[in-house]
Design goal:
Order of helices and strands: HHHHHHHHHHHHH
CATH class: Mainly Alpha
Strand content: under 5%
Shape: globular
CATH architecture: Orthogonal Bundle
Number of strands: 0
Mean pLDDT: 85
Low-confidence stretches: 1-7
CATH topology: Farnesyl Diphosphate Synthase
Largest sheet: none
Structural class: mainly alpha
Length: 285
């Protein structure tokens, strides 16, 4: 009698934890919608989503491999490498497979711009999690994350239309990165203990929660005012104004709760951020 085949579900769940696909909903949707606005091509839009999805899967896997010690101290449950849900070897095989799929996917997009964006994303990943270890250098790590989450997806979408100039889109991408910055500052509340123990000098570790709350709220107000200048037309401003107010309130609530909010509020926050980002894309469309 043959032995039963091993259940693949635990491995699939561990790989899902490793790549954290729930974290890429915003960036993937932003890339897909930006691509569609600039090209009106559904296949290009879908390819852009999976391109960002695979870029993030590579980044998350590499970061989890580098963060085993810190995540163990923080008792993180979302890194399967610290609870024997996955071995280093399995994670490295998954990383290689994700890179291979990424290479295949970027061939469906406009070249050489998509390849350059992928290389820039990988460079920022290395600077963040690799030997330079910018995530331990206070603000540098958060800025890199803001660019990867909010800036590069817009540039990727715009690049699919074979533009002659990138001036306006670079300004819009920088502004969207600014919008994301106060939200990303809240991600480190749950990691303060491990970050201190391993010498990772995040803004929260360097300046403390009270200062970071004030800074986050100030940045959210500044980003809202900058967007007010970018978005033209009375009708657009009437729609944008309550959206900006919700964004500032969400930023305040997220930091008041130290990043620990219910899933329904987190989803609402993602929608608010996506609408804020689309306001930028629409204004330069």
């Amino acid at each position: 009698m043959s032995e039963p085949l091993p259940n693949p579900l635990p491995l699939a769940r561990a790989l899902a934890k490793l790549s954290r696909p729930q974290n890429i909903v915003y960036s993937g949707a932003l890339a897909a919608l930006s691509s569609y606005l600039f090209t009106e091509s559904f296949p290009v839009s879908v390819s852009s989503y999976f391109f960002i999805f695979l870029l993030y899967a590579v980044s998350a896997t590499y970061n989890n491999l580098k963060d085993i010690r810190t995540d163990t101290i923080n008792h993180r449950t979302d890194n399967p490498l610290i609870n024997k849900g996955l071995s280093r070897g399995q994670a490295q095989i998954f990383l290689a497979a994700a890179v291979l799929f990424l290479i295949c996917t970027q061939l469906l997009l406009s070249q050489p711009s998509s390849l350059l964006i992928a290389c820039l994303y990988m460079l920022l990943l290395y600077l963040y999690s690799g030997r330079p270890n910018f995530k331990s250098q206070s603000w540098l790590g958060v800025i890199i994350l803001a660019v990867c989450y909010g800036g590069l997806p817009i540039i990727l979408g715009y690049a699919q239309s074979d533009p002659s100039t990138y001036t306006k889109i670079l300004i819009g991408s920088a502004l969207n990165s600014l919008v994301l910055l106060p939200i990303l500052l809240a991600k480190d509340y749950k990691d303060v203990k491990g970050d201190r123990a391993t010498g990772i000098r995040t803004p929260l570790v360097t300046h403390g929660p009270k200062t970071i709350r004030v800074v986050a709220l100030t940045i959210s107000l500044l980003a809202s005012l900058c967007l007010w200048q970018v978005i033209g037309g009375i009708a657009h401003l009437l729609i944008y104004t309550p959206l900006a107010a919700l964004y500032v309130v969400y930023t305040y609530y997220l930091h008041a709760r130290k990043g620990n909010i219910q899933p329904i509020y987190a989803k609402a926050g993602t929608i608010i951020l996506l609408l804020m980002s689309l306001s930028i894309v629409w204004s330069i469309h």
